[in-house]
Amino acid sequence: MNLKPVLILLGLALATIFALVCVLLTRERSPRTCQHVPPEQEEMEDGQSLVFADLTAEEMSQVVRYLQGHLGVPLVEASRAKPSENCIAWVDVQVPAKAEVLRFLDSGGARPPREALAVLYFGKQPEPNITELVVGPLPRPAYHRDVTVQKYGGKVPYHRRPTLAVEYKQIGGFLKSQVFPSAPAFMQQVMEYDGANLATVTAAPRGFQSGDRVTWFVLFQNVSGFFLHPVGLEVLVDHSSLDISEWAVSRVFYNGQYYRDMVQLESAYVQGQISVEKVRKAPWDGDFSSMKPRAPAAALFPLQFEPQGPRYSVSNNQVFFQGWSFAFGMSVSTGLRLFDIRHKGERVAYEISVQEAMSVYGSNCPGGMSTRYMDGSFGLGRYTSPLVPGVDCPYLATYVDTLSLSDSLRPQKRKASLCIFEQNLGSPLRRHYSNLQSLYYGGLVNSALVLRSITTVGNYDYVWDFIFYQNGALEGKVQATGYPSSSFFHGDGLRYGNRLWEHTLGTIHTHFVNYKVDLDVAGVKNSLMAHDMAFEMARAPWSPEQQIERPRLTKKVLDTEDQAAFLLHSKMPRYIYFAANSKNKWGHQRGYRIQITSSAGDHIPEASSMERAISWARYQLAVTQRKEEEPTSTSIYNQNDPWTPTVAFADFINNETITNQDLVAWITAGFLHIPHSEDIPNTVTVGNSVGFLLRPYNYYDLDPSIYSQDGVFFTREQDFTACEINPLACLPKTASCLPNFPPFTFDGFRNM
């Protein structure tokens, strides 16, 4: 018998069996696709959260059509309006009065009518003015009412209007067509001006007294990161007239010297009477200001994924997570805001919202030294930027589009401009390892929900977060990044900052951020309590001849608004909290504590003629009675007329009682920024983060996070490698799956 064919067949059979076994084993080891397990939640019925919802695109369009047809005056599109014409500056939702909303949410009352707030510039009138109209009911408007006098005590003068994009464009045209040509030799030989290689940055406010609209414009090389490329030329433009042909140059600054106008500068240059500091022409990418990475890509940075899908849910404008629920929105002027914030089904706060972001600059150049930016006037919501998955937010976050109508008659969608994600913070929320007496480990991962938006206002980017923790704490936080603003380095510039490059002075400036926190702790009526410590001397009871210094608890009720207004750097009680009329199991008033994280610079002196416009920044914390007529701590009209502020927060504090009242906490946090070489090319968020925490203080009978399903506990006697004992032991099985990473998309360069 010939064995060769048999051996060949046997070898082939064994090879086939081996290959099949390898395939099966490999298949078994291949990770499965992660499966989504829907989170458990109790949703509000009948879309109640929509009472706070931002306007839809259709609602915005309906408001515009209504205004065009019912005001009896022509309305020009804001993107091409002259100052002497009428236009719609912006449209936003008009949030109903709190009493109406609570009747609807809590007592089965009627749903408040849905309304919009429209801000109009009436330049084509005998007495030009700014008018605010409430339009409703939506979605089919049938009425409007003028609320300007009701809100501000009178008409709003036209010179206070926030500057539209078209006005900046018109000023740019004025500089290009009339101003720069009056100094041809200087512009060509020193600036190498070709009509497109210079960019301008506005200073604000615009002058020294009410009625002024006179603005310094600082010139930079028009390259990537142009904020770091000053050329030494600044022009003061008087654009107060509604007739563009009457605009004029009031002053010119170049390299430390002031001139009457560009004609005088040209004459001095031609005669060799000025000190020329010619700036090296930067490449289009900005060279040192370029954010292009200087190193090739290497190993991928860590990514976060959810093995069983998101543990939160988003329904319309409402979010649910681990006992938390809240409604969210985006104001055109003030940006991110929350409403009806509940934990374990009970309302903790009615509203938490950003109010303002402000910076005060120093410099030895006129544009820098006169700058006090109030970013709400430019629009913290309007300039909310699209988010880049994987950098701005975790790649697998939930991304939400936002809408706004400003400087246009049509709504603008900003895709993926708000993100929601659960974040494992990589540390325990609480833990204990017991190595005395009984041996055990107990802990809880600190996993929190984050709601985020990022505002880019000119050179700065503000990362706004609201963070929800499993122990009932809530954090409001802002991180600053972007480019530092700069001045041309000359003379005694080092008194006002650090030199960052050959001609670049990083100018000293402050950052202040204000929040409105309308806490409703176990009901609308609360009081303000202060707890702190003091040392007392006591004789040791067991040894009376000896003394002990022991800390004791101090308690105080803050009865009035004046007592509850804490100046910026003054000593404040370390435990300050809103106290309810009810008590917990242990007889303590239920409360929520306010804890502020801030390293603010100094506030502008109160003697300043414009201080009242930003008087909210006097206080690290001020608690006042809540009033519908005091909805915000500032006004978008304060930027261009801070000398006669439309809203002065200092007037809110008038010694009224705050015991057993509906209260609002106005919180200010900030930091001092002295730009340094590591701010090139870009300021980092590390160390530039401020905000506040709201923490339960005797609100519960014990820490509510003990009921979290994420808890871990095992003893020495238990088999802590078993899934039923220790959920961490299950991770090789429950977390060994492939997340679905969708293709990368970014919509930030469309429809610019």
Describe this structure in words.
The modification 2',4',5'-topaquinone is found at residue 460. Residues 75-143 form the Copper amine oxidase N2-terminal domain. Among the domains are: 48-156, Nuclear Transport Factor 2, Chain: A; 165-289, Nuclear Transport Factor 2, Chain: A (Roll); 312-370 and 482-696, Distorted Sandwich (Beta-galactosidase, Chain A, domain 5). The protein contains ten helices and 36 strands. The mean pLDDT is 94. Helices cover 13% and strands 38% of the residues. With 752 residues, it is mostly beta strands.
Index terms:
Beta-galactosidase, Chain A, domain 5, Nuclear Transport Factor 2, Chain: A, 10 helices, mainly beta, 752 residues
Summarize this structure briefly.
This protein is mainly beta. It is 13% helix and 38% strand.
Walk me through the topology:
Elements: H1 4-29, E1 32-33, H2 57-70, E2 86-94, H3 98-106, E3 115-122, E4 129-136, E5 143-146, H4 148-152, E6 156-157, H5 165-179, H6 184-189, E7 198-202, E8 214-221, E9 230-238, E10 248-254, E11 257-259, H7 262-270, E12 312-315, E13 318-321, E14 324-331, E15 335-343, E16 346-361, H8 366-369, E17 372-374, H9 375-378, E18 398-406, E19 412-434, E20 440-457, E21 460-468, E22 474-482, E23 486-488, E24 497-501, E25 504-507, E26 509-519, E27 525-540, E28 543-558, E29 565-567, E30 575-583, E31 589-597, E32 619-625, E33 661-673, E34 689-697, E35 711-715, H10 731-734, E36 737-738
Parallel strand pairs: 1-36
Antiparallel strand pairs: 2-3, 2-18, 3-4, 4-5, 4-6, 7-8, 8-9, 9-10, 10-11, 12-13, 13-14, 14-15, 15-16, 16-17, 16-26, 18-19, 19-20, 20-21, 20-35, 21-22, 22-34, 23-25, 24-25, 26-33, 27-28, 27-30, 27-33, 29-32, 30-31, 31-34, 32-33
